[in-house]
Amino acid sequence: MSKTAVTTAETVILQPLSLPAPIASIPSRSSDPDVLASFSEHSVHDTESALPPETAVSTSQRWNDPPRNKYRVFSCFFTFIVYGMNDGAPGAMVPLFGEYYHLPHSIISLIFLSPMIGCVLASFTSNRLHAVAGRRGVAATATGAYMLAYIGLSQHPPFGVVVCLLVLTGFGSGLMNGSWNSWFGGLVQGSTVLGFLHGFWGLGATLAPILVSRIVVKVEDWWIFYCKCQRRKGIAGLSCLACIGVTSSFWDDVGTGFRRQPVTPLPNAQGTIKILKNRVTLTLSAFMVLYVGSEVTIGGWLLTFLMNVRKGSPAASSLATSGFWIGVTVGRFSLGWITGYVGEKIMVSLYLIIAIVLELVFWLGQKFAVSAVMAALIGVSIGMIMPSGIRMMTKLLPPEKHLVSVGFATAFAVSGSSIFPFAAGALAQVYGVQVLQPVALALFGSQLLLWLFISRGKLKV
């Protein structure tokens, strides 16, 4: 018996065991830096607990998921081509309006200022329209405003009526900016898809001066651009196609989702004013106003500058103006993924520094060829600034504030396309068209300073 006990004691010999690697239990609410430091990243071995549950789903949509989004995205692309043509046409129309109506630059500049009234109106009505009729109603209203304005312009009315009709185009642009920018900005890879959206806007802005110059050379009637005449489909026909496409793509979006969102049930005007107290909304709105102002001021007065100051021919100056818009388009199509990869904060600062240097070369170079090349390169450098500003806003703000804040900021930014070109025209009447370059430099410098303030990351929601 004792032998058996001894044998048992010999076979059951405890060996020293090495302790297993500790399994970290990550504190969920502790903010103590000493506690957080004790849980180093490499000590976490329970990787399954860090994974989301099987029932978890992403709340962010993609451009192709659900499948109906593909139709929505492409219809918005086409609508933004029309929107770009709308913005690119006034600059080409400046000398034509001056010759047809026999008016000075200071009065013709009202074609840049009048859309601002429509944009401001859109910024205060967008939220209510979304709640009542959804994006379907926004699409129909925005493109419908375009069609009414173009039909009126095709009748070549007195200049005062032209100014009033352009208020409708500003209203449509403000609605589209707010709705589609907030929707695209909330998609996965928002920087890339926003770059494409605004790239198609640049494509439309590129086509407009070319079409206007060809129409004037062959027909000599500027209003042909806006209507269908002699088997030509003007921009009124394109806006009709855009209305059908984008309205049908958002046909099931009738405002139910917006009414269910957990937002404060205030009247539209009060809700918008409350959102305006947000520093993120105010600061980025100011930045977008400056950007759109610089973009449309350059694009709107470049043709006149090249003809009067650089002594270019109308055909060559029109091509150089289109080169600027081509640069904007190329920048938005090609630089979106780089901007998203590196980050908007760094890339926008870099873009603005490059734009300032190129603008200086444009100003100091006295030859037409140098100015044409610099204009195209400036377009490339500033192409992604607007999409990046929108993307930054969607990152800083909670989703329930995207519609009102992004909608107001982008709609209000369109007013920049009215104020600054008008101011440049007023200055050009007194000092000559050469004031375009110092105005553009001042706008780029102001954007850079404001973006550096935004990049500090101290803006509070």
From TrEMBL:
Which segments carry the region annotation Disordered? 44-63
For this UniProt entry, which residues form the secretion signal? Answer: none
**Gene Ontology terms: cellular component:** endomembrane system; membrane
Q: Where are the transmembrane segments?
A: 71-86, 106-125, 159-180, 192-215, 280-303, 315-335, 347-364, 370-390, 402-423, 435-454
Among the Pfam families in the record, one is MFS_1
Coarse class of the protein's main subcellular location: membrane
Q: How does it sit in the membrane?
A: Multi-pass membrane protein
Listed InterPro entries: MFS, MFS_dom, MFS_trans_sf, MFS_Transporter
Query: For the Major facilitator superfamily (MFS) profile domain, which residue ranges apply?
Result: 281-461
Q: SUPFAM superfamilies recorded for this chain?
A: MFS general substrate transporter (SSF103473)
Where can this protein be found?
Endomembrane system
Task: Give the GO molecular function terms.
Answer: transmembrane transporter activity
Tell whether Membrane is among the UniProt keywords: yes
Identify the keywords attached in UniProt to this record, alphabetized: Membrane, Transmembrane, Transmembrane helix, Transport
The family line of this record is: Belongs to the major facilitator superfamily.
Q: What is this protein called?
A: Major facilitator superfamily (MFS) profile domain-containing protein
